[in-house]
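[Automated response] Your request has been received and processed.

Submitted sequence:
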Amino acid sequence: MDVELVSQRREWVGGVRAEGDKWVTRFRQLAVRKDPEERARRTRMKRLRNKRNPLKALAKGPDEDVEVEGVWGWTKHLFTRVRRNLPCPGWRGYVEEGGDGDRVSSKKKVRIVRANSRKENKKGRFPGNAVHTTRYGPITFVPKNLFEQFKRLANVWFLIVAVIQLIPGLSPLNPASSFVPLIFVLAVTAIKEAYEDIKRRVTDKKINWMKTEVLTPQGFKKTKWHKLRVGDIVQIANDKPIPADLFILTTAHPEGIAYFETANLDGETNLKVRQALEETASLKSVNLLQNWKASLSYEQPNAELYSFEGVLHLEGHDDIPVNLEQTVWRGSTLRNTEWITGMVLYTGMQTKVMKNSRTPPSKRSTIELEMNRALITIFLFALCLDIIGGILSGVWSTVTGYDKWYLQLADIEPSAAVLGLEAFAAWLILLNVIIPISLYVYLEVVKLVMVYWINNDVAMYDKETNTKANANTSNLAEDLGRIEYIFSDKTGTLTCNKMDFMCCSVNGRSYGDTQQHIMYPEDDVVITVKGKEKDSDDEEMTASLNAHSNKENVHLLNTLDVPEDTGEVDIPTEPPVYSDNNLLSAIEDSDEKVGDFFRLLALCNTVLIEVPEEDDDDDTLYGSRSGRQDSAPKRLIYQAASPDEAALVEAARKMGFVLVKRDSHSLTIEVLGQQEQWELLNVLEFNSDRKRMSVVVRDPRDGTTKLLCKGADSVIFERLAAGQDELQHTTVKHLEAFGMEGLRTLCLAMKVIPEDMYKEWQAKYYTASIQINGREAAMDAVAEEIETDMILLGATAIEDKLQDGVPEAIATLLKAGIKMWVLTGDKMETAINIGYSCSLLSNTMNQIVLSSEDTDDLAQKPIRDPLVAKDELERYFRAYFPNTATSRHTSADKRAKNQWESPLGEPLLKVDEPVDGAEKKPEGVDAYQKSSGLYNIAQPPPLELTKKFALIIDGKALAQYIPASGFNDLSVRFLELAMRCKSVICCRVSPLQKALVVKLVKKGLKATTLSIGDGANDVPMIQQAHIGIGISGKEGRQAVMASDYSIAQFRFLVPLLLVHGYWSYRRMANVLLYSFYKNIVFALTNFWFGIFSGFSAQSLFDSWAVSVYNIFFTGLPILVASAFDRPTSKEQILEYPQLYESGIKGIHFSQMKLWSWQAMGIFQSVVVTFFGIAAYANSNVAQSGNVMGIWSMGQAIFTSVVLVVNVKIAMITSTWTIFNFMALLLSVIGWFVFLIVYSFIPDSVLLTSNALYYDTFNFMSTAVFWLTPALATIAATVPDFAYKYYTRMYRPRDYHIVQEIRQIERNRSHRVKMEKQLNKVRGKLKKIPIVKRTNRGYAFSQAEGGGDLLYTLNLAPVPVKPTHM
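Generated structure:
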């Protein structure tokens, strides 16, 4: 690109000094080049200018950073520091440090705030502290809500039709037929939205009007939250919420320590510890705070919760770095601290909690997407009918002529084209009911009912944690019944996340055993494990490394006067600690390596220690064990950030290395009863890149400076000093053995640092710690320099047991046809062992291992580059799948002929043949579309083949197949291999890789996916999957908050999917199918009547009846059925999990299924229409003498439609309750009640003509009105009954068979019960004595006096004296 030199500009390279009321600085001349971006550059420059600020920013040129071009005329009260190389307070410019001085650039924004100076900070134009979470305003509610609702296709369609109906003389119906249902749907949705928004507004006002103490010239004064401003100094009392993001100045604690609860912010259940800087901790009086002059430069508002970079500028003092430990965010609550004082950093919508309150990714169920496609096809079908009707109307008019008086053609030019267009518009209006606008209301109601059942299912209630299942969304319940792939985390999801220290390797010797040497402690120990979020791509050592994985507890952990009430429930536990006699002997003999090993466990951690006050003076706290005098308290409360951390510290305690006290500068441990106070010099923080944590301490025994480090074996081994090959090899063997037992491993190392080296390194570390920009990266780089040439001490092994019911749950899910992938950060050996425990792996499986590490298999190469990755992939294809070893972009016909073969070459099953009568799945993957590099691949192989293979891959190898930059051909090939495996286990994967794996399957196979996890590192894959499940376990609640559904245990996934998912899918399918069906039956009756009306679009029905057809006469039964219908019982589904496969195959809702229902609806519309026309063809006459006309016939046909569609809902109902009967009766009876009431309403009330006014009784008094619907209903539903009988008898589905089994069992149990009752009766009869009689009785007898009664009633002749002849 050609450029032209047009001017010169200056770069700020020198410091700034004050001369009177002006600033003076030095600039360097730089060339400014002109290029095509010049106009955009100047536009951006104008936007950056501030009238109050003389700084003029230039936008980025072709090869230059944004720079500031002058700082003059600044008044003296804005900035009094002459040493600073930064702009004045309030300026939101850019600062980059490095080089010859501080240079202003575009790389990162910096905010500069003056403490307790509203006048100066006002120039920064910072926002107020009010928060607003409402979506609408009083004025914007109507337009915004209507805009959102008209994003729905059906609403737009009905609006267009309603507008057309307003054209005079065009519509065959009253405009109310379209406006009434449209307004009803819009109103219901708008009321729901308004109600939710009003609740949000009330909550916002309640929060914004809360009060807090703000420093004023008169002292601290109560002020409403929304009046706070950046730079204000506030004071917060104990148990009060934090009103804004604060920089902590001082606390009631002598050393500036404070405790905060952040569960509302990040979901973590542990208390966070914060500590004020030493330079500000003494500001405890109002006078000191009012006279305190300082400014703080720090980063602009962002959503990062776990990092903060700033620099505090004090007069006469070097710049002081400010980090996360001195901050607390809005949404937190002060606990166990009398008060704190802080300076406001961010306010209102710029606080961390509001920055993180983003709307989660919008997810729509797959069945809803299919519904939208169905709407489009039905819309096109209706449009075709409209066109046909318009054409036939024009043809009819041409054939019969235009002189018919009743056509009223005097006002228009009679022509086929004009009449055809007019008829097309009329048919468009008349057939608009073919699209059920009430469908959206139905769906909302049904989904709410589904959520209610899920939230209140006692089968998913965890009594131990008092946690029930919770649905965070109502949009995805039906997708729970269509899950094909489950992606699961391991730690805390499949396992309990309850750690037991089992084994260790020290100096090349293994101690302990997973099955033996287990000893339970005799003394009382309390370990409080707080729910810490995992923030690592390596779960196995994340929590062990770092109780501060989110960097909270660095340099500020202190146990002086630790508050007794931590705000958490302390759970007494007795973790097993192995008792190996060899190890105990080594400790007793003061083995140096063993001592260093357990000292490292006691020192290299971030646990908080609490000694209960009631135990402080209890002499029984001290005792001996194993012959040793243990002067440490027996009852300690270790507030650990993770179960791993607690297990390691407790293991050291049980071995006699007890951490008893810590503060910001020292760690106190007791070793075999002897106290040692170690000086804490530095804590090198853990992050997902480092995969380790270290502490630099000074040994009190000899005064040497030591580095203690623990981390993953992969990062520790590459930082060891030379000459340890044999020790490393032995330790690796031990690690592999531990991994085979399913244990979580960690390596420990140390280093002695010369004093001069430490001083030099400490200077670099301090320089990095005060950087405002890039501080974390700079500190990591400095840490790399010191964490070298370490001495390997050994390794630890911790057991994390499986949750109850996990193997059984996985086995049930596999039987249901769901494929299970495990994505974990653990070592491969550990993951494989868990795979066997979970029944994901078996000894009969062929394991396909893709690893980046060297293995014992000489034929297998470590996968470290794409070429090797491709070769290894093809090697397995040639070995196990020879017919697909070189396939690429094969045609569908060729794929249909391919045969899956075993490694021996024997064909197993043709691809184009269905398995066990199952429906064939569509060929091709269409993965990530053509633009993403994924292409169609072969159809998934049959289960007979996939059950023989398992794929195991580690993270580095996975990166070659699924790069973060995007999918490629190698990704497609990897997916082909994974599809042929029953189980897939991915080890050592990062959170990003988890999300990429889910995305590959989701986009590549078009399969419905589910991700389940319990920690923060699982959030990416939870949000990537169609459905995300969060486990509310010990890893905090970030996964729960980001999920669509939350459960307490993995085993609850079985009832959630197989019971609620199966039911929800069936119910939603029935709602959609029935909604489309009932409307096509209703709409097409008018179309068939067009044969007799010249296709003039004459309606058979009254406009108001059309308007309320979906709401009153057909809506209630389907809603009740969708709420209570259970095609199979819960017990049946769990006994036969194969029933779930119907959802995976999409049997109950598909385009074919939809149109089969529509075909039946079309047939039934023909039957009811022609039955009605035939019945009224002879112009029946009512008793009043009135002739039955079109409206009488129309109501008979309407009655037939109501009966037919209600019979249909009865046919598809499996579970009958009193509510189902009531709904059907109300719908049918409601129609007749409507006819009677409607006939009394005059035209003046309806604002339109009432064709049924006083006419209902005329046609209801005739027999033909009652016989026609009855006969038409029978004739229309007989084929439906016949088809239902045929499918059940000759082509039954799985659920038909299960239902019959259930019925047979019921009949058998009933017969058994009846037989038992009969036997009881027979037994009783046998016990009754039989008395034999000798006399006999008469066949009948008559009471005396009966003849007299007859005589009295003159019913018999009175006896008279006979006459003599």
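Summary generated for your ticket: The radius of gyration is 41 Å. Residues 1053-1089 form the longest helix (37 residues).
If you did not submit this request, please reply to this message.
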